[in-house]
Amino acid sequence: MTNEKIQTIMQLIDAAYGDAEVKKFPDLQKLLMDWYKDLQNDEPISKVFPRMKTQISWYALEHEGKLPQAIGKIFNAIAVSSEFYEGTAFQALMLGNMF
Known about the structure:
This protein has helices at 3-18, 26-40, 45-62, 69-98. The protein is mainly α. α2 (26-40) runs antiparallel to α3 (45-62).
């Protein structure tokens, strides 16, 4: 993934952190801060994106599907990449068990 894509995700996270709707949920702001720090510290996106997707999904479940629009934008931006990395990790795990 390009550096430009990572910068785009970081900009979405930054915008979401300052969003009025998101500010009502401190626990969500903490997640945003953690994700931003992970990306800023060059944590592999193959770990960060699936974690972000999972945490957003759990958050939505815990709050009966009520998710600020800014968080939905982040989810949509990472969903395809996240699924790719999740699939690759699962495939490696399964192939490793076959040999």
